[in-house]
Amino acid sequence: MSKRDVITFEGHKFLKQRLVFSILSQRPVRIEKIRSNDENPGLWDYEIALLRMIEAVTNGSRMVISPTGTSVMLKPGMIMGGKVTIDCPVSRSIGYYLEVLVALAPFGKEQMVATLRGITMNNTDLSVDTIRTATLRNYRHFGIEEGVEMRVTKRGAPPKGGGEVRFICPVVRAVKPINYIDQGRIKRIRGISYATRVSPQTANRMVETARGELNRFIPDIFIYTDVYKGAESGFSPGFGISLVAESTTGAFMTAELCANPGDSPEDIGRDAAKMLLNEIARGGCFDSSHQWLALLLMVLGPEHASKTRIGKLTPFTIQYLRDIREFFNITFKLKADPESNTVLATCLGSGYTNVAKKTT
């Protein structure tokens, strides 16, 4: 199959990853029957915003959307980077868009400086705190370290948002292969408990119950409280907690939860702590929220074998591996490790090189 052949998919699920794969592999993609039988057919506001963002950070990308919005075709261009400002619809959080930038930004022509406005945390997408404290730190396993930065300048709770995030990512020529199979033991737990437009005591109440659950297992726990007031607190009241457990070998396990109407801070703190313990029990060097990042950067590595250990594959990851095979023609060797209930994933990199990066 040549690079000019269009890869066709059906349905709205996994739209985001397929657009990312199309740009990185330079293979055109057509996605049809997007909610064609739905009461509200076609692309929804957050998917249109995603397409606009891709158009903003690339040069030469051509998109064709059918009049009904049920079909979209993308002919990928070159990743440019540079300064971009994105207003994210409140139907999804900033994390939905940041995941795409995290995948594309290192392979642009210029350093990316992105400002995103919208909801900073919901229970559907990764929160900006988890991306800052875990996702971007996972970059370093692949040789992307210096200059990566993210700052939360304003918080925005659902439903109205009003948050703002600044993301800076330098460009690299190529990523390194990894041989990272030792998941280590958990040595410390850190977290952020935030509250906007509610009593500052709310954040402390979440911290107390989360610590009550986790203190039985490990003493080194520190959860910061982050209380916002005035203009920096967005347009809606809300609170939530993001937890990160770090292992002796640099693996990060994450869990997060934000409040729905009627939830008490104690319930949020307790449930988030239990979610973190479940994530630790799954094992692996990358948690279930970051399996996709590890697999993608392994595929984009040089033509050497890369190997890592991940927990039980999520349904999302299984589809992710199938799409990798479609776009990059790379198949992973997966070997179950019954002793630790984890999976050893091995692949040969595609030898991806960022030809847009200026050589110094």
User: What class would the helix/strand composition place it in?
Assistant: alpha+beta
How many strand units? Answer: 18
- Largest pleated sheet: 4 strands, mixed
Q: What is the terminal separation in angstroms?
A: 35 Å
Helix content: 25-40%
List low-pLDDT spans.
none
**Widest β-sheet, arrangement of strands:** 1-2-5-4
List the secondary-structure elements in sequence, H or E: EHEHEEEEEHEHEEEEHEEEHHEHEE
| Mean model confidence by pLDDT | 95
Question: What Rg, in angstroms, do the CA atoms define?
Answer: 20 Å
User: Per DSSP, what share of the residues sits in E-state strands of 2 or more residues?
Assistant: 25-35%
Shape: globular
Question: How many helical elements?
Answer: 8
Brief digest:
This protein has 360 residues and is of the alpha+beta class.
Architecture blueprint of SSEs:
Layout: E1 7-10, H1 15-25, E2 29-32, H2 45-57, E3 58-59, E4 62-65, E5 72-75, E6 78-79, E7 82-87, H3 94-104, E8 112-118, H4 128-138, E9 149-154, E10 163-169, E11 179-180, E12 186-196, H5 201-214, E13 221-228, E14 238-247, E15 252-258, H6 265-282, H7 291-299, E16 305-310, H8 315-328, E17 333-337, E18 342-348
Parallel strand pairs: 1-2, 7-8, 11-16, 12-13
Antiparallel strand pairs: 2-5, 3-6, 4-5, 8-10, 9-10, 12-14, 14-15, 16-18, 17-18
